[in-house]
User: Fold Acetyltransferase, GNAT family from Enterococcus casseliflavus ATCC 12755.
Amino acid sequence: MIHAQKLVDSSSIGSTEIEREAGDRMEKNVSMRELTTADLAEVVDHYIAVFSAEPWNDQLTVPQITDYVSSMMAMNTFIGYRLTNRASNELIGLSLGFIKPWYQGKEYVVDTFLITGTHQGKGLGSTFLEMIKEDLLKKEIPTILLDTEESMPAADFYKKNGFKPLPDNVSYYLSLD
Assistant:
């Protein structure tokens, strides 16, 4: 599990939709908003497209991912974000997560974070994370938690964006079948 440093910036974003021009590339004219159930089909399509490709190569079905995403959205602590191209409204990125109470304050647990294939490697993931941080600070949520496989390119991406390993932590699972 990787843990972000506490978010210390106190800037206000002013509205629920954030717009930003990041960098020199045209594609970085982006806006972010929270996901709604109206986004479900588009989220499922993009989830499958990203995680069926390299380096994951997962075997995914529409019913399987529809159930996963709709179950996440049904949680009363769910917060999901979508990053879109401001000009075309094309979906560029997604974050699916939930708020976890903790004795030291609330934490945003990222279950899925993705940038669509053609937009990867252009700085949009870092821009998206910054926009999410701004929104979380507005909501007084100072910490982001997530996990990823150390051997995946995502691990380097998260480290580059300030995430740090939790000392003395390891992930375990127990299969009940």
In short: The beta strands are 2-4, 18-21, 29-34, 78-85, 91-100, 107-115, 143-146, 163-165. The longest strand covers residues 91-100.
